[in-house]
Amino acid sequence: MGYWGYGMPFLGAGIMKLTWIDIVMGVSVALLWGMGIVIAKSAIEHFPPILLMALRFEVTALLLVWFVKPPYHVMLQIFGIAIISAAIQYSLTFTGLRGLDASTAALVVQLEVPFLVLFGMILLKERPGLRKWLGIGLAFGGVALIAGEPKLGDAWVSMFMVVGGAGTWAIGQVLVRKLHDIDGLTMTAWVAVFAVPQLLFMSFLFEADQINAIRTAGWDVWAAVFYLGLIMTALGYGLWYTLVRRHPVNMVAPFLLLLPIFAVIGGVGFLGERLTILTGIGGAIVIAGVAIIMIERGEPQPVEVAGE
Questions:
Q1: Which of 136, 137, 158 is nearest to 147 (CA)?
Q2: H/E element holding 128?
Q3: Which residue from 137, 196, 296, 297 has the least number of CB within 10 angstroms?
Q4: Is 129 exposed, middle or buried, given 0-12, 13-18 or 19+ CB atoms closer than 10 A?
Q5: Could you tell me if 188 and 60 are in contact, meaning their C-beta atoms sit under 8 angstroms apart?
Q6: Picking from 97-101, 227-231, 235-239, which range would have the lowest pLDDT averaged per residue?
Q7: If DSSP codes are grouped into helix, strand and coil, which group holds residue 174?
Q8: Is there a domain that residue 306 lies in?
Q9: Domain count of the chain?
């Protein structure tokens, strides 16, 4: 789903510098984003998933675009980033979510982090150390274990779509990391602006019955759209960027390890999903692998984070 920084050192003694308000904000971000997957899962029972994402970003764009200056000098780059990390990525991820439990999808999408390391190595000539390779191996091994879950049945296509969405997101973030003079809120706002027509076009190509879905949507479905656009995206990133302004990203990013945990709890509690032992073990391995990649001992390093 795209919530991660890159190369994030261990909190260590730095956690003492966080106030209780900071800690509440960090946990809240993970909760808002994790529950967003659960709410999106319920909403795509009515809205086609790509259309749902177009409506989500329309809400976000209409809210945020008035508060940031247009970055005219990199508009073309942001347009391209939106194609990859919004139009293509969300089309894959949320179409895949339709065929998976929210809890399963939330665990599989954590492959964004190891994919980011791999594409950083390929496209930016970065050299991941042995520790990161171990984390990558664990993360992919955990997803393979989840994929072997008998209850998935014929949902292999959905699984591969979510994996493909995670990889596509990582490519987009590698491109984002080349834009050094754009703040996260501006990036989030203008990716949303460009994502709306792109996603509508993708919906036109691959989905049907959009007009009827909009006409017959109940208040609960529209509430889900506004949650995704206002709460998950605008408020979630507002809290996140407040934390980033107060502290190094590498101090607060480990809060995001709570995201899949909240999504699993929400899927079980609100959607009636059943977390099997195999999925639970695989998910724990995935989270452990991601933690190994994100958490390092040593001095904080500069970290770049881009909004989803």
A1: 158
A2: none
A3: 297
A4: exposed
A5: yes
A6: 235-239
A7: helix
A8: no
A9: 1
**Cα 294 to Cα 254: distance, rounded to the nearest angstrom:** 7
- For residue 259, give both structure tokens: 């995201």
Looking up tokens 């759209």 gives 225
pTM: 0.86
Instruction: State how far the Cα of 181 lies from the Cα of 276, in Å rounded to an integer.
Output: 45
Q: pLDDT tens digits for 81-103?
A: 999 989 999 999 999 999 999 99
- If we measure between CA atoms, which residue out of 233, 6, 150 comes closest to residue 225? 233
Q: Is residue 7, in this structure, part of any structural domain at all?
A: no
How far is residue 196 from each of residues 86, 117, 288, measured CA to CA in Å? 9, 28, 35
Distant-in-sequence, close-in-space partners of 40: CB < 8 Å, separation ≥ 6 = 49, 52, 94, 97, 102, 224, 228
Domain annotation covers residue 4: no
> Both tokens of residue 180?
């050094």
Domain that holds residue 258: 12-294
Number of Cβ within 10 Å of residue 140's Cβ equals: 18
pLDDT tens-digit series, residues 157-172: 999 999 999 999 889 8
Whether residue 77 lies inside any domain: the answer is yes
